[in-house]
């Protein structure tokens, strides 16, 4: 996967692993989970059967990375899922093919199972079907008699038939958007998780090993019948899928976003709460209400791009999610390239602070690559003059000095 630092439409993702590793990436808004997974396998040498998990469930390869909360995706290698299978009894996904007798007995089995953050599940992509042939099969039991039979007692032909049947028939019903709605229902919304916890998109010191937000165990959430009260917020928190007309607008209005607005001309940072259907004009009005000194010609700059001040320009359509950082261009800072340079300087400062604590080799490599992407972004700032041109040159020198301090071997990386 090529570097995306020079493109304006980006989203920042933090990928964690069960071994305590943290990888920070700048990705395009249209990046799919499958593309990110292929990049991690190719770039960092993970096993080809490695999967990305969200709240213990395999993330759909066809879903967008930006639809998942920041830092919620986790890398799971076959070794991780194998240890989970050995400690957990086999579990059947909730599908229409399960006999009523088994549905009645399933809650009793669930009460005796130990909960785990990573539960084995079946991938839905065609690529995963091909790769799962080399992995350990996940047995699916369709009767009480079959449930008592261990995998060692089953004939090889029968086990092979069960494996193919499991992959083709029993596909998880929960899409990436439905998984996100489960997280919102359990925790009270993403805004509550983000408030007061994230000052920057980069890990610092001991934050690399922080655990994911606590939610109900995936096995319990899948087996318990949903109540009418729990279905309403899930639908409200779903990410709009482009179907349903006014229903999508209603869903967006129920999603609350907290946008961090930086005003360089006034040297202020103002957090603004808006709903998911708000436009760029709504954001400007909210900032003006919080900061009366703001000039009427203020504009919004996000990821080096000047957003149109229009009621039709929705924040969600421009890649702005909760805890996003935007800059307000006005006064002496009314130039998009000046604002982009300020964004670059803040990103450099965040990495520099993180380098003050001990780093693993993987973290050094990740920061080195991120600095390279930031360096590419400075190539688009060619029209700056005077003091700003000099500040751009100083930023380039600062980036190269930090890369040298990381001590990453370019040939190996």
Key terms:
413 residues, flat, disordered N terminus, BAG_dom_sf, protein-folding chaperone binding, BAG domain-containing protein, BAG_domain
Please describe the topology of this protein.
Blueprint: E1 10-17, E2 22-28, H1 33-44, E3 51-54, E4 57-58, E5 73-76, H2 78-87, H3 100-111, H4 126-131, H5 144-147, H6 156-169, H7 176-187, H8 190-194, H9 218-223, H10 228-237, H11 246-254, E6 256-263, E7 268-275, H12 280-290, E8 299-302, E9 305-307, E10 325-329, H13 336-354, H14 361-377, H15 387-406
Parallel strand pairs: 1-5, 6-10
Antiparallel strand pairs: 1-2, 3-4, 3-5, 6-7, 8-9, 8-10
Protein name: BAG domain-containing protein
Biased composition (Polar residues): 108-126, 175-208
InterPro entries: BAG_dom_sf (IPR036533), BAG_domain (IPR003103)
Description:
With 413 residues, the chain is α+β, with helices and mostly antiparallel strands. It folds into three domains: 239 residues, Ubiquitin-like (UB roll); 82 residues, Roll (Ubiquitin-like (UB roll)), CATH 3.10.20.90; 74 residues, BAG domain (Methane Monooxygenase Hydroxylase, Chain G, domain 1, Up-down Bundle), CATH 1.20.58.120. The chain contains 15 helices and ten strands. The chain has a five-stranded mixed beta sheet with strand order 2-1-5-3-4. A five-stranded mixed beta sheet has the order 7-6-10-8-9, with helices on both faces. A hairpin with a 4-residue loop joins strand 1 and strand 2. The N terminus is likely disordered. InterPro entries: BAG_dom_sf, BAG_domain.
């Amino acid at each position: 996967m090529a570097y995306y630092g020079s493109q304006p439409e980006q989203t920042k993702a933090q990928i964690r692993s069960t071994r305590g590793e943290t990888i920070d990436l700048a990705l395009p808004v249209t990046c799919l989970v499958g593309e990110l997974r292929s990049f991690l396998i190719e770039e960092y040498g993970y096993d080809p059967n490695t999967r990305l998990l969200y709240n213990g469930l395999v993330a759909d390869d066809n879903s967008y990375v930006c639809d998942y909360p920041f830092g919620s995706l986790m890398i799971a290698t076959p070794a991780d899922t194998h240890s989970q299978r050995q400690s957990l009894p086999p579990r059947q996904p909730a599908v229409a093919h399960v006999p009523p007798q088994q549905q009645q007995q399933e809650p009793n089995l669930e009460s005796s199972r130990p909960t785990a953050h990573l539960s084995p599940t079946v991938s839905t992509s065609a690529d995963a079907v091909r790769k799962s042939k080399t992995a350990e099969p996940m047995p699916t039991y369709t009767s009480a008699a079959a449930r008592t039979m261990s995998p060692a007692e089953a004939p090889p032909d029968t086990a092979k038939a069960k494996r193919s049947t499991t992959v083709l028939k029993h596909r998880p019903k929960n899409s990436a958007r439905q998984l996100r709605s489960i997280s919102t229902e359990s925790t009270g919304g993403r805004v509550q998780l983000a408030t007061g916890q994230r000052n920057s998109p980069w890990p610092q010191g001991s934050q690399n090993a922080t655990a994911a937000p606590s939610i109900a165990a995936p096995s319990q959430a899948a087996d318990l019948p949903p109540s009418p009260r729990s279905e309403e917020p899930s639908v409200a928190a779903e990410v709009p899928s482009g179907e349903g007309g006014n229903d999508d607008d209603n869903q967006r209005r129920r999603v609350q976003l907290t946008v961090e607005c930086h005003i360089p001309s006034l040297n202020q940072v103002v957090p603004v709460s808006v709903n998911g259907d708000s436009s760029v004009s709504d954001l400007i009005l909210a900032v003006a209400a919080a900061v009366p000194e703001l000039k009427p010609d203020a504009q919004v700059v996000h990821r080096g791009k000047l957003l149109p001040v229009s009621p039709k320009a929705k924040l969600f359509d421009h890649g702005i999610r909760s805890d996003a950082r935007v800059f307000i261009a006005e006064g002496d800072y009314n130039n998009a390239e000046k604002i982009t340079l300020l964004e670059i300087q803040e990103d450099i400062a965040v990495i520099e602070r993180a380098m003050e604590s001990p780093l693993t080799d993987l973290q050094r490599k990740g920061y080195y690559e991120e600095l390279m992407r930031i360096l590419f972004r400075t190539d688009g700032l060619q029209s700056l003059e005077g003091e700003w041109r000099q500040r751009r040159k100083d930023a380039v020198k600062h980036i190269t000095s930090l890369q040298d301090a990381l001590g990453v071997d370019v040939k190996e990386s």
